[in-house]
């Protein structure tokens, strides 16, 4: 499919910093206990990069994503998005969760249009945008169906379309394919790669899957066990490569990620 200029993000320049984390630390306090989830995180993500964050369970991956999304404030340090300090959620960041969280009473089209309606988009513009997005995620034929009529993979595609609707510069995905079967997961990984290539969005993808990180990250960051600190930070050309799984580079990167996750 050729690039769709209307769906492209418009960073100031190819190297503009989209997300900057400086000295970020997060400590939860629950029931009189303090849990240090993340510490000393310094990351600068350029516009258009696809950052895959991988690490053992409980290392603070979701915490990191939720802070960038603005759902959670860091205990220390600062997070900037597009140069501005993050003070809460905003239309510049779309979020996709492990569960699609679609509104069951709305059609697929209605779900994708929801944020646009709230943002006051005129009906004709909204309609055009929704149809473009449904095409982009491969749901062009099922816009009139309700979420319960869709497979899990289709629901997750609808969730991605909904997150992309207001044209956020950054798409944040928290284990978006973890609840799907292996085949659907592989297909959606490939589709997300295509969406990234076609839209030029900045992506932050949290995943348990070493393969997913190696396939989708133009930058791969591995966090240590809690408190999460960065133990591997590598740029990669693999998400731009067709059939990347078949390449020796994929195997080599996979091994380096695995070793970092295991603390070797
Ligand atoms: N609301 C909370 N209150 C207290 N502790 C929390 C809270 N949310 C997360 N934690 C703790 O913070 C640590 C990091 O959690 P987080 O969910 O960010 O890790 P994760 O790497 O995403 O884990 P997983 O891969 O299992 O989803 C964990 O030890 C978790 O138990």
UniProtKB/TrEMBL annotation:
Keywords: ATP-binding, Nucleotide-binding, Transport
Gene3D superfamilies: P-loop containing nucleotide triphosphate hydrolases
GO molecular function, one term: ATP binding
InterPro entries found in the cross-reference section: AAA+_ATPase (IPR003593), ABC_transporter-like_ATP-bd (IPR003439), ABC_transporter-like_CS (IPR017871), ABC_transporter_ATP-bind (IPR050166), P-loop_NTPase (IPR027417)
Every ABC transporter domain range: 19-250
Domain of life: Bacteria
Keyword tRNA-binding: no
CDD domains reported for this sequence: ABC_NrtD_SsuB_transporters
PROSITE patterns: ABC_TRANSPORTER_1, ABC_TRANSPORTER_2
Annotated protein name in UniProt: Putative ABC transporter, ATP-binding protein
Protein species of origin: Catellatospora bangladeshensis
